[in-house]
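Page header: ASSEMBLY MODEL / two components / 405 residues total.
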Amino acid sequence: MNILVLAFTTTAIVLIVNLVIATYGIFTDRSLLKKVISLFIFSDTLSVFAILIGFRIPKITSFPRQPIYLDIPNTVKDIEEFLARTVDPIPQAFIITAIVINLAVFSFLAGLLLQYYKHFGSLDVHALEEEEVIDEVY
Amino acid sequence: MSAEKIRKSSLIAFVLAIVTLSISIVIVSGGLGILPPKDLRELGRTITANCFNPWNRTLTSFSLNAVSAVIWDYRGIDTIFETAVLFAAIAGLSMLFKDVKGFTLGRVGGLTLIAKKSVKLVILLTTIASISIAVHGHLTPGGGFQGGSVLAVITSLIVVVYSIETIYRSGISLNIIMKIRYTALLIIMIIAIIPVLYGLAIGVHAYFMQNISKDDSPISMPTNFFDTPLGGSIFFFNLAEYIAIATSLSFVVLLFSMRLKELGLED
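Prediction written out in full:
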């Protein structure tokens, strides 16, 4: 097995392990702040995974290049050579969109958490339930 | 933690471990296709071949950076909506904190004189770098979003090293930041409809967010600035997005660095 393929597969599997640990955090942690942090790790891992899918090993060289021309192409041959070496630009473009949206969502979530803390005095998921129980008793 | 909860979390952990194992087996055995591939995928190939291609003038975008070409030309409407999502999130955030009591000018704090003086130099260099990233978004790695994020770092640097009072004393407030942001978003929309308006004026067909002339439409945004490729509307979109992102992130940073009392969260 080629060392680059081995590195690629290892990275992919490590990312999946990271994804699963983040999912575990979202499911089981009691603190809302830690849940949000887990969600952040989850989405960032997905971003890295998508970029990894865009990676390729060109036939002519062992390492690909970024999808950016270093010089203005003068002939059609320059474009063909560029195509033979470059990685896929589409996952990168999608991920930059996804990062902006994640950022928007997380800044909003952080605001919501501050308001939650104001109302319940704690970031515990069960703070809401305990409040209701107290209401029933009295 | 009660016994039931421990049992529940170990069940979740067991299920997730099986998920990890199965996805890993799928990847190693080539279930997602041969990874990593040797050839470009067809869509990626088309876009990379046409992002700077003077021999195919109807499909090219005259941008040396293929990623910028995808973001603002080939999938431009995606990015418009992405900017709209960011706009909605920041609008929601400002609604959540509509009780902001306003800022109380306190004692000017901050770090030591050494840190302050050296950060001045860093701020200058970072500003130049962020402008360069945004302006050269179609030529080198970078773009409006990346440049804007770098500029927003300066806001947090000032808050940490000087103090939030310094920003307010220099006349920047949340309202002014929001106004700059609305203007930048308006500029993005105006650039997007310029081809349509121009086409209506001279009586030819044109598309929303059109960049370079198409088969049935001769309208084109400027492709070159002297001998430097300009990428048509990509350059202008990058500039407007730079301002929009920098102000949005600065808004978030300034809002979350206010004291709880000022945010109306503490009586």
